[in-house]
């Protein structure tokens, strides 16, 4: 079986799922079940995992002994805010240190603030967090984040929640060519073919939320994304035929035909 190693742990699913924007926790659970995901990301500033005892707790339907809970800093706009949020998450999850860092630049586009991201990454790595980091598709920034010590680089395909797909596959390829840690596309995938495209490029995985949660049938879309990730990975491993304008040789033999 083709497996995926992240921060010293092996996974068989390369699809990572967010937990926001669903109608309720029941739909969240059904979608995650259909996706086959083993890593589930949670926005600490938006979803309760114990910080609000009077509210429903997501961990009641997604137990940490079954899933790897990946706390993230969605909604943070400074390094200080992001670091503080992940320290809270580590307390709530009994010392869990695998986290997803994202520091946003503005509330309109949700584009990453790479300066604050770099600053937060340096602090978190020094404090023994295993940092998966959302960033732009800039290969230089991606390499710098790896050098800082991040365990996975997560460039956007396009803007968060846009569903525009992979707008710059060449930059993603440059990041892949120079990375020595897992590279996962994060943000912008809208449908199954785009998830497959990310995997065919050689990405180690894809993280998505809106593409599933905002679908007309989230459960069915989760199932489609599972298949797309698997198909894209197999196509990458198989190696596609080269592209060319036309083929000078027929794919079928030209001798031994009837009448020859």
Q: Please tally the β strands and state the result.
A: 10
Note the overall shape: globular
Q: In DSSP terms, counting alpha (H) and pi (I) runs of 4 or more, how many helices?
A: 8
Give the percentage of residues in beta strands.
15-25%
Low-pLDDT sequence parts: none
Note the gap between the termini.
47 Å
Largest sheet: 5 strands, parallel
Oligomer: single chain
The level of helicity is: 25-40%
- Walk across the major sheet and give the strand order: 5-4-3-10-9
Radius of gyration, taken over Cα atoms and rounded to an integer in Å: 20 Å
- Look at the helices and sheets and give the structural class: alpha/beta
Mean pLDDT across the residues is 91
Summarize the structure.
Helices cover 36% and strands 16% of the residues. It is built from eight helices and ten strands. The strands form three sheets. A five-stranded parallel beta sheet has the order 5-4-3-10-9.
What keywords describe this structure?
260 residues; 3-stranded parallel sheet; 8 helices; 36% helix; 16% strand; 10 strands; 5-stranded parallel sheet; alpha/beta
């Amino acid at each position: 079986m083709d497996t995926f190693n992240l921060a010293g742990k092996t996974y068989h699913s390369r699809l990572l799922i967010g937990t926001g924007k669903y109608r309720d926790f029941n739909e969240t659970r059904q979608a995650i079940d259909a996706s086959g995901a083993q890593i589930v990301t949670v926005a600490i500033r938006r979803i309760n995992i114990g910080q609000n005892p009077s509210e429903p707790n997501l961990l009641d339907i997604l137990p940490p002994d079954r899933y790897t809970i990946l706390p993230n800093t969605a909604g943070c706009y400074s390094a200080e805010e992001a670091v503080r949020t992940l320290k809270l998450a580590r307390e709530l999850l009994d010392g869990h240190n695998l986290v997803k860092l994202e520091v946003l630049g503005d509330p309109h586009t949700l584009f990453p603030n790479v300066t604050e991201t770099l600053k937060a990454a340096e602090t978190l790595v020094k404090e023994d967090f295993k940092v998966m980091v959302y960033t732009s598709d800039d290969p230089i920034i991606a390499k710098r984040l790896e050098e800082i010590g991040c365990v996975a680089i997560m460039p956007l395909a396009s803007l968060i929640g846009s569903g525009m797909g992979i707008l710059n596959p060449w930059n993603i390829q440059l990041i892949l060519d120079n990375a020595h840690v897992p590279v996962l596309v994060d943000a912008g995938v809208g449908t199954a073919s785009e998830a497959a495209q990310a995997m065919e490029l050689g990405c180690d995985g894809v993280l998505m939320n809106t593409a599933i949660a905002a679908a007309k049938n989230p459960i069915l879309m989760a199932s489609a994304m599972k298949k797309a990730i698997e198909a894209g990975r197999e196509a990458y491993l198989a190696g596609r035929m080269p592209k060319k304008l036309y083929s000078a040789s027929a794919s079928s033999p030209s001798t031994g035909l009837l009448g020859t």
